[in-house]
Every structure is written in structure tokens, then in C-alpha cells.
Amino acid sequence: MNAPQPHPAPLPLFQPRRAAFWLFLLLVVAGLSTVGQTLLSGLRVMPVSALAGAAAWALYTLPLLWIFRRLGVFRGQTAAPFVLAFAWGGLGAVFLALPANQAMFGILSKLVSPEFCHTWGPAIAGPTDEEPLKLIGVILLLLIAPGRFRTISSVMALGFVVGLGFQVVEDYFYTVSTALNHPNAHQLEPVVQILVLRGGFCGPWSHAAYTAIASFGVGYFVARRDLPTGRRLGVAALALLTAWALHGFWNSPALGSLMEGLTILLYFPLKGLPVLLAALLLWRVARHEKTAV
Question: Residue 52 is part of which domain span?
Fold first, then answer.
């Protein structure tokens, strides 16, 4: 019996001959400009909130990455692709999602009504725009360096970091926006408020989980080349649809009656646990998947 052939060394991430590399770089740089403008506007009006918010969300992110590294989520990979994944989520995807969401809200207001858009707009526009845009970053990184991510679990890890980047930058935008519109002069109060609400109550079942779920399908498509293309495409589409549905359910007014009194403590777990359970289930399936690219 012939010995199995070793996989070729993965390509470096600097690939100036690949169109995917330049598209990725262009959109990340454009996103950096957008995020920079938000930071500067916050510094001009609410400097303490802007700086404290940036520090708070950085401190929120780093322990999460350390924990997942200790759990072996990033096993066998260097830090570089995950830095790029975070950059896509926090810069490239955010840059594309801002105008896309505005356009979707405008369409819903005109086609249905402003009232419908106010109530259901986040549940429709958010997942419809944001889930594919985040997943584009995962696909671009796979195109830039084919073979670097050989398993479904490694692609899911990439998606997790893309989603985390989007989540953290989006939460920072909310922090600055809340500070600019806060009725009190205390600049640290809105930072703590958004950190507890969006980081604590919403964080475990937010964009990192959505994009990890959607990335399961991409990983399945590239890793299971022994299966028919139609089946692989079907799994990829189903994974994206699952992330879209869970994101839409979270953004929807469903279970809104629990947003009063002590029942608010039930609201977040009831809406978020399906997201977390789906991500953990797919992660378990991916870790038992032996087929590599």
C-alpha cells in the first residue's frame, strides 16, 4: 500500500498576483477609513467615551481569543490569517454593510411602510446584508491562500473570528452613538451600558456564532470534494440560511413581551440559546470530520 502523500505547504497570504488579494485589501482599507471617521467624530465630541469604548472592546476581545486558542479552536494555524479575518469582519464587512443596510431600510419603507421598516427592518436587513458580506471575507481568504485551511473546523474558526471582528466594531459604533446621544454628561456611563448589554447579554450569541454557522457550509464545500457538487452546494446554502434565520429571529420583535421587569432575564437566553446550540452542534460535527482539502 502506498504511503499517503503529504499536503503541499500552504501558500503565503501575500498574493499580489491574485485578484482576491487586492479586493480584500481594498475593502479593508476602505473600512479602516470608515471606522477612523467614527473614532475621530467621537473624539471631537466625547473623547473619554470614544477612548474608553475602544479600550473596553479591545479588553473584551482579547480574552475571548485567548480562551478559544486554549481550547484548540485555532489549532495548527498561525495568527496571521486570523488577524486578517478580524480585519475583514471589523473593517471590510462593516464598510459594505453600512450602505447596504441603509438601502434595505429605504426599500422596505417605500415598498411597505415606515412603521413596518421600524419594526421588522432589523430582522430583514441585518441578516440579508450582513451574513453574506461577512462570509465573503472567509471565501476571499480561502481564495488568497488555497490549502491553508484544510478542514471544516478550521474554516469555522476563520468564520468565528470574522464574525467577532464585525461584532466588536459594530458594538463600538453603538457605544459612540449612545455616548453622542446620551442625556447625561457622564462619559463613562454609556460605555458601561453598551458593554454590559451588547457584550454581556448579547455577545455569546451574536455575529461570531452566526458567521461560524455559515462558515460550516463553506468548509464542507471545500473539504468534502469526494461528494457531489450539488450536495456540497446544498449544505453551504443551508448553513447560510440557518445563520440568516437565527440572526433574523434575534433581530425580530418576537418574544418582545418579555422585555419588561424581571422577565428580561429570560428574553436574551430564549432568543440566543438556539444560536449558541446550533454553533456548538456544528462545531462538534466539524471536529469529527476527518476529510481534508
Answer: 19-287
